[in-house]
């Protein structure tokens, strides 16, 4: 506002130590979510962290053996539960992000945890999240399982956010 600007100018004129500067935003943290197919769990986690992190966290996801497309039920559930659109998201192989630096790497399934060990990938955490795409019970059962996994990912991310905001940058 004009008043704040005038106050800042007056303070600077009185003494350089009173110069009002804009607040310094801490550097954004970065998190990579890994799962085998990068079609359900990891893109859901990436999208939830992006939304819940409100621009303060850089999130990415990849798979050790990515499937051709994001699972359609993941797209539907994320839209229904969180208003998040995954319909234009694409699966990504680990090689596409392997040159980037991440503050935290979180594996979401046991198979990709083994992949990380085999490729000397330092991981921060392992969340053993079940694969919702293999649920039984037809379309209704699969949808219910995707909702459950999305809810679990969202809860874990809510607990992760304070850690990301408080942790010193060391990677």
Descriptive overview:
There is one protein chain. By secondary structure, the chain is an alpha/beta fold. 46% of the residues lie in helices and 12% in strands. The chain contains six helices and four strands, in the order H-E-H-E-H-H-E-H-E-H. Strands 2-1-3-4 form a four-stranded parallel sheet. Strand 3, helix 5 (110-118) and strand 4 (125-126) form a beta-alpha-beta unit. It is elongated, with a radius of gyration of 20 Å.
Question: What is the global morphology?
Answer: elongated
Order of helices and strands: HEHEHHEHEH
Indicate the proportion of strand residues: 5-15%
User: How many separate helices?
Assistant: 6
N-to-C terminal Cα separation, in Å?
39 Å
Largest sheet: 4 strands, parallel
Low-confidence blocks of residues: none
Calculate Rg over CA atoms. 20 Å
Query: What's the mean pLDDT score?
Result: 85
DSSP summary, beta strand count: 4
The computed structural class is: alpha/beta
Strand order of the largest sheet: 2-1-3-4
Q: What is the percent of helical residues?
A: 40-55%
């Amino acid at each position: 506002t004009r008043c704040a600007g005038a106050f800042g100018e007056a303070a600077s004129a009185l003494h350089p130590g009173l110069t009002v500067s804009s607040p310094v935003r801490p550097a954004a943290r970065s998190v990579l979510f890994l799962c085998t197919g990068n079609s359900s769990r990891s893109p859901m986690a990436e999208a939830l962290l992006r939304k819940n992190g409100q621009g303060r966290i850089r999130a990415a996801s990849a798979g050790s053996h990515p499937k051709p497309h994001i699972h359609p039920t993941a797209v539907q559930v994320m839209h229904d539960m969180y208003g998040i659109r995954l319909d234009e998201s694409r699966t990504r192989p680990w090689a596409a992000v392997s040159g980037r630096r991440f503050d935290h790497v979180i594996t979401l399934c046991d198979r990709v945890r083994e992949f990380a060990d085999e490729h000397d990938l330092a991981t921060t955490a392992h969340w053993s999240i079940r694969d919702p795409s293999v649920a039984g019970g037809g379309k209704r059962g699969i949808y219910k399982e995707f909702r459950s996994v999305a809810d679990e990912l969202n809860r874990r991310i809510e607990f992760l956010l304070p850690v990301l905001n408080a942790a010193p940058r060391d990677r």
